[in-house]
Amino acid sequence: MLTATLFSSHVALKGPRDQLLALWLNGCYGRGDGDDLRAKRDTPRHQAANTTSNAINAPTTTATSELDSEIEKQSERILSLVETAHLLMDGLLVLVQSLGGQSWVVDFHLQGSSDSNGQTMLSAIVHNCVMDGSMSAFAAKLAVYRLLRTKGWVVRDGVRFGAEYVLYKPGGPLKYHADYAVHVHMVGRHSPVSWRQILATIRFTEQAKKKMLHISVSVPQLKANGNGGSLEQDFVTSLDSSDASIRMLQVSRWVP
C-alpha cells in the first residue's frame, strides 16, 4: 500500500520501494530521485566502463552496485495531477482508505480494476484546479495525455525540451530517447500560433533531436447541473467523455 498526499501541483506517493518502483517500470509514471541513476546504470557507456574496471581487477564494489544502492534509497514518487487522474480513471491506482484532509491510502494495480471510490480523490484534484482557475487547462492536458497513452506511447513531462510532453516508445527513457516533443494549443484560450512561433519551436525541437507534434484541443465549457451537483462532480463524470476535440499535426522544416 502507498500513502498519497495531494498538493496544489502534484501528488506525492510514499511507501514500499518495490511498489514505487513498479510505477516506474510499468509505464514510467511519476518521477523519483533514482530515475536518472537507473538511466545512467543502463547506458552502454556505463556498462562498458564497468566491464573495463572488472578487467583490471577493480574492487568488488563496482560503480553499478553503488548506483543500485542509491536507487534503493528512493522512498517517494511524485505524480503530476494529470498522471494521477489518468491512473485513477483506468483503475490502476485504487483508493483504499481516506486518511482525512487530502491524504489517502492507495494501491497500484498492474491490470486495472473497477474503483468507484477513486472519484473521491479525483474530485479533490478537480477542486484544486477549480480554485486556482486552471480547470480548462487541466482538462485539455488530460484529454491529450489519455489519447497518447491509448496509442501506446509512454508520455513524460516535456518541460526540459520546452514542450508539454515528450513521447517514448514502450519501454520509456530507460531504453530509448524520446521521439516527439508535444506542444498543446488550447483552442479558444490561447492566441493563434504564428508560423514564426512554429518555426522557432521546430528549430529548437530539431536541436534536441526530436520531432514536433502540434496538438490543438478544444474541451467543452463545463457547468454545474441543476440537480444539486457541484462543478467538480460534473467535471469528474465528463473527464473521459468524447466531447473533447483533438487534432494532431506533425510539423517539420523543409530545407531545400
TrEMBL record:
Signal peptide: none
Family: Belongs to the tRNA-intron endonuclease family.
Enzyme Commission code(s) on record: 4.6.1.16
Gene Ontology molecular functions: nucleic acid binding; tRNA-intron lyase activity
Annotated organism of origin: Chytriomyces confervae
PANTHER family in the record: TRNA-SPLICING ENDONUCLEASE SUBUNIT SEN2
Protein name: tRNA-intron lyase
GO biological process: tRNA-type intron splice site recognition and cleavage
Compositional bias (Polar residues): 48-66
Catalysed transformations (reactions): pretRNA = a 3'-half-tRNA molecule with a 5'-OH end + a 5'-half-tRNA molecule with a 2',3'-cyclic phosphate end + an intron with a 2',3'-cyclic phosphate and a 5'-hydroxyl terminus
InterPro entries tied to this protein: tRNA_endonuc-like_dom_sf (IPR011856), tRNA_intron_Endo_cat-like_sf (IPR036167), tRNA_intron_Endonuc_cat-like (IPR006677), tRNA_splic (IPR006676)
Domain tRNA intron endonuclease catalytic residues, every copy: 138-217
Annotated Pfam families: tRNA_int_endo
GO CC terms of this entry: cytoplasm; tRNA-intron endonuclease complex
Feature: compositional bias, Basic and acidic residues: 36-45
SUPFAM superfamilies referenced in this protein's UniProt entry, alphabetically: tRNA-intron endonuclease catalytic domain-like (SSF53032)
Region Disordered, annotated ranges: 36-67
